[in-house]
Amino acid sequence: MMNQLGSLEITKDDLVTGNSERVDGSYEHGDASIAGTEYTLVANERITNVAGTVTYFEKDELLATYTFNKAGVAEIKIINSKTPAELKVNGVKLEGIPMGSYRTKGNKNSRGLHYRQNNTYIYFYL
User: Fold this and answer.
1) Please, are residues 89 and 78 in contact by the beta-carbon 8 Å criterion?
2) Distance CA 100, CA 126 (A)
3) Using an 8 Å Cβ cutoff, are 8 and 80 in contact?
4) Looking at the whole model, is its pTM more than 0.85?
5) What is the rounded distance in angstroms from the CA atom of residue 106 to the CA atom of residue 59?
6) Distance CA 34, CA 54 (A)
7) Tens of pLDDT along 55-92?
8) How far is CA 72 from CA 43, 59, 109, in A?
9) CATH number of the domain to which 39 belongs
């Protein structure tokens, strides 16, 4: 049986303006900037191959970080070097992610941004 793989691209959008550059040429709104905001991709469960004979990630194991520039585009860094999964960065996408349940966790906010209560994790299935 062939294992299914997915990819993930995360883009942060401003709630009001999206990611559009403002008339004055900046992406900042007052003293807030999205640049430097960081999220980590985390396995939400034990992730295995279809047969259950290979474990790609244990529950709560970290896969990669997404660090955003001022336009909300992420630079991805794979931080898990021991997984048998063949993760790779292709531009703004992380590819080769085995099917399973994952979540993103906000690690670091940049100047002027704050997390909403009870909205730190985004859960999803590939």
Assistant:
1) yes
2) 6
3) no
4) no
5) 17
6) 38
7) 999 999 999 999 988 777 889 999 999 999 999 999 98
8) 23, 28, 12
9) 2.60.40
Residue type, 95: E
State the DSSP H helix or E strand holding residue 109, giving kind and residue range, or none if neither. none
Number of Cβ within a 10 Å radius of residue 81: 6
Task: Please give the Cα distance from 113 to 30 (Å, whole number).
Answer: 11
> Residue 40's beta-bridge partner residues?
65, 105
Asked if residues 99 and 36 have their Cβ atoms less than 8 Å apart, the reply is no
Structure tokens given for 48: 């295995």
**Residue 73: DSSP 8-state:** B
For residue 83, the enclosing domain spans 5-18+25-125
Please state the domain count of the chain.
1
Q: What is the pLDDT of residues 30-41, one digit of tens each?
A: 556 677 888 899
Whether 38 contacts 63, CB under 8 Å: no
**Best CA proximity match to 9, nearest among 119, 91, 120, 105:** 91
Q: How far apart are CA 106 and CA 120, in angstroms?
A: 6
